[in-house]
Design brief:
The protein is an all-alpha fold and 96 residues long. It has one domain. The chain is 80% helix and 0% strand. The chain is built from three helices and no strands. The longest helix is centred in the N-terminal third of the chain and has 31 residues.
Amino acid sequence: MVLNMLIQIVDLLINVLVMLIIVQFVIGLLLAFNVINATNEFIVAIYRSINSLLEPVLAPIRRILPNTGAIDFSPLVLILALQLILIVLANLRGAA
């Protein structure tokens, strides 16, 4: 019972983290291709806030991955790792 509740909480937190990664990626693309002007203070503040939340998680992944130039694969690696954690937790829930 308690294990199931903890797994649901971790599942929710992982899903929120994945959504933040996707929002960061989309805003970064929109800013890079000048779809959203970089002088839009609201969007830039949101982007910086999300970056400050995700940077402690993404920085170790960036150190491990080889330098690929302009393309940053660390968000993709993090999403894949989080999905693997969700699979393990689902199997734990099924076993319990």
